[in-house]
Amino acid sequence: MSALDWIVVAGYFLVVVAIGWWSKQRIHDVADFFTARGRIPWWLSGISHHMSGYSAVMFVAFAAVAYDDGITVYFWWPLTIGLGVGVGAFLFAARWNRLRAKHDVKSPLEYLARRYNLPTQQVLAYSGAALKVVDIAAKWVAISVLLKGFADIPLEVGIIFTGVATMAYMTVGGLWADVLTDMGQFVIQAVAGFAMLFAVMIELGADFPFTMWGDLPDGHGDPVSGSVTTWLIIAFLFVKTFEYNGGMWNLAQRYMAAPSGSAAKRSALLSSALWLVWPLILFLPMVAAPLIVPGLTAGEESYVALAKELLPAGLIGLMLAGFFSHTMAMVASDSNVITAVITRDIAPVLVPKVRRLTERAQLTFARITTVLFVSLSMTIAITTRGEGFVLDTVVQLVAATMGPISIPLMLGLLPWFRRIGPTAAIVSWAGGLLVWYVVRYQIDGSTEAAIVGLPLLTSLVLYLGIGFLKPESTPESEELVLSLNSDPGEDDTDDGRPGRDQVTTG
User: Fold this and answer.
1) Runs of H (alpha helix) within 438-488
2) Which CATH number belongs to the domain containing residue 71 in this structure?
């Protein structure tokens, strides 16, 4: 990397610091820290929702899929997400927002104690928080791999540098800092993405990408190719519909932070449209990489090799700043929501006096929790040294968490399932985790589609089957669900029953 590249990277970090300190002025209590009190404009919430799904993993692990298998990477990842978020715009987005607006919910899991019971909330909180630590560790590894490829920076140094920088702005700025960093990430990614696209077009000719397919290895132009199967795409569509509409807790926060339920719906539709269109700009150069940097034995190095081959000084720095931005924004997003879960759902049960903390003390506690959580994920990333860690971890954690946690979490919001109670929720959680363990570790030769899809399918069947055979609703839980049918001040008309704007919080 040239001196100009490092100047660009340094400039990016100065902007991040400025965002953090500007956001600090808007943070007065935990409501500001975790949900921005519903003051995030719908368009910014939508962009943030979209960008929170990216990290450096895409430019390492997914670039390897594009290099080895071709355009199929678009069909099994962003296409499934875009369709899933589009469905969720009509089912889930507004309901997440109304939890905050009507019931002062600050954590996506906070409502579970009222919807089911305290044990249900706790098992989902503990299992999700523990697994999320490892998920974030994988993202630290991904950015360190890119740093080593671009600048030969040791893995440990890259993790520590990126982690400390993320803590610095996230701890002071909360969700505002996270969302604004997402916006900055969107701008950087747009410039860097189009720069790479145009560089590949100059290299391969103005008719790129239309004429490259015949020159690529066999199957690279097929929607289903290599390790990607039709069943895997179907499984991912199933999983991503839950994951990106709130099963990945930080994305539920984006809906909660919008001004209203209708604004949250618009946010989701914007995010859906971005997922369907924008990743094509990013993936087409990755798919074309075998024509420009052929013969790589490790596909994970393809994007770095492509950038070094085509981009001039300054743009490589911008590209690296984009990688930083991707990972830091996603980790900040995850850290904020996990901190919310720990602060609002776990700590008050373990130490009841946490409930009696002043607003200022709660904010301090949230910031300390953020530092500890990020530090733990960095430690895991450094000790594993990233060997075989990135894609395996991301895929396996999706399989392990999305079904067991998201089924009771998200279906619990919908009025059609309001009579399903805690027994169905806990059994579906336990059954999904058990099936994931058996398929992943006890059955030889399990396909990726089975590992990803079966835990979620198991949780869904158990939740619905037990729930309808053994209904366990209470008047409070039914009122809570029905109150989410409309924004405050509007009539709740779903199912012919009135809802209320407030539910007893206990």
Assistant:
1) 448-469, 475-482
2) 1.20.1730.10
Q: What is the pTM of this model?
A: 0.83
CA distance 215 to 197: 18
Q: Cα(37)–Cα(32) distance, rounded to whole angstroms? A: 5
Confirm whether 401 is domain-assigned. no
Going by pLDDT thresholds of 50, 70 and 90, the confidence category of residue 191 is confident
Tell me, yes or no, whether 116 lies in a domain.
yes
Structural domain span for residue 69? 3-384
The answer as to whether 107 is a domain residue is yes
pLDDT score of 130 more than 50: yes
DSSP codes joined into one string, 253-314 = HHHHTSSSHHHHHHHHHHHHHHHHHHHHHHHHHHHHHHHHSTT-S-GGGHHHHHHHHHPPTT
What is the pLDDT at residue 408? 93
How many CB atoms are closer than 10 A to CB 447?
15
Distance CA 266, CA 93 (A): 9
Q: In the chain, how many domains are there?
A: 1
Task: Look up residue 334 and give its amino acid.
Answer: D
Label residues 337-365 b or e (16+ Cβ within 10 Å = b): bbbbbbbbbbbeeeeeebeebeeeebbeb
Q: What is the pLDDT of residue 275?
A: 94
Query: Per mean pLDDT, which of 51-60, 81-90, 215-224, 471-480 is the most reliable?
Result: 81-90
* pLDDT, tens digit, 9 for 90 and up, residues 302-334: 888 888 888 887 777 777 777 777 677 777 777
Residues in the chain: 506
Classify residue 503: in a domain, yes or no: no
